[in-house]
């Protein structure tokens, strides 16, 4: 007997492929798709398998060596780039898997095995990782001399903001480095644009890849949402696990924050903050149940939350929608929880089954 999950993240292949097509066309380059953090909570295996079928996806970008190994093991035939520095002991293991490695110093360049392929990481103002522009060309030259230089990249800090002046300055610094690099046997794979960069700038001169993160999954900054017809890839549902009546004057959940003004039919739903639904949304969250938008009652629990189902035809096992593509979205949930879509999506736990659909 298979024991079913109580919550399901339904993934739309059509939405994902549509987003990737729009983003690739706007960037006028193939895509290096970020699938870090379990593909932004959508499921690493599921998203990599779906995206590998898309003709505009050049490869995948990850944040940790373990993620790199997981994607490499899926054997999609697409390159994998590790975005953050590995430890010295991890370098030969990753190189043997064909993972492209980030390099930001002469010591890192010299430590690479001869069969490695490297992307020069340039810090143009994010001040997180990478070689400073005044040092980066020398590192790139060392990589080129060893025949290991495949690409170079930087990361915008403010490309998703209305004021793009600093993003333009970052791009200028990056081009200064690119112009100083020697010619390589194959055209250098330069990439800078994240999702905000693609939406703000479109095609960037000299760039051969783009790295749209959350935009690939259907989300963009509010002032850029009309730029492309992006669709959220995920709909989240959970089951009704219990039905009962809270009588007038009784409270619901921890702390007694909500008190029934009258006899209230309560549906308990099998999802909570351990699954990634934000506890901070307490007192503000709504869900869709039996076709109606209803409030969540009282404190959101670790494994459950309670919903007002008064007057609705609800049975045990019925699905409740926590978020969907329109009307009740991840953006709404993030707003109720005083956070951002990134945190809500990447916090979606392993108890939530990822289910792929075509729609």
Automatic annotation (TrEMBL):
SUPFAM superfamilies, per the entry: Alanine racemase C-terminal domain-like, PLP-binding barrel
Cofactor(s) for this UniProt protein: pyridoxal 5'-phosphate
PROSITE patterns: ALANINE_RACEMASE
Binding residues for substrate: 128, 302
GO CC terms in record: cytosol
InterPro entries, per database record: Ala_racemase, Ala_racemase/Decarboxylase_C, Ala_racemase_C, Ala_racemase_N, Ala_racemase_pyridoxalP-BS, PLP-binding_barrel
GO-annotated biological processes: D-alanine biosynthetic process
EC identifiers of the protein: 5.1.1.1
Reactions mediated catalytically: L-alanine = D-alanine
Active site: 36 (proton acceptor), 254 (proton acceptor)
Pathway listed: Amino-acid biosynthesis; D-alanine biosynthesis; D-alanine from L-alanine: step 1/1
Keywords attached to this entry: Isomerase, Pyridoxal phosphate
Residue list for modification N6-(pyridoxal phosphate)lysine: 36
Presence of the UniProt keyword Glycoprotein in the record: no
GO molecular-function terms, A-Z: alanine racemase activity; pyridoxal phosphate binding
Domain Alanine racemase C-terminal: 233-357
Protein family membership: Belongs to the alanine racemase family.
Function per UniProt: Catalyzes the interconversion of L-alanine and D-alanine. May also act on other amino acids.
Protein name (Swiss-Prot/TrEMBL): Alanine racemase
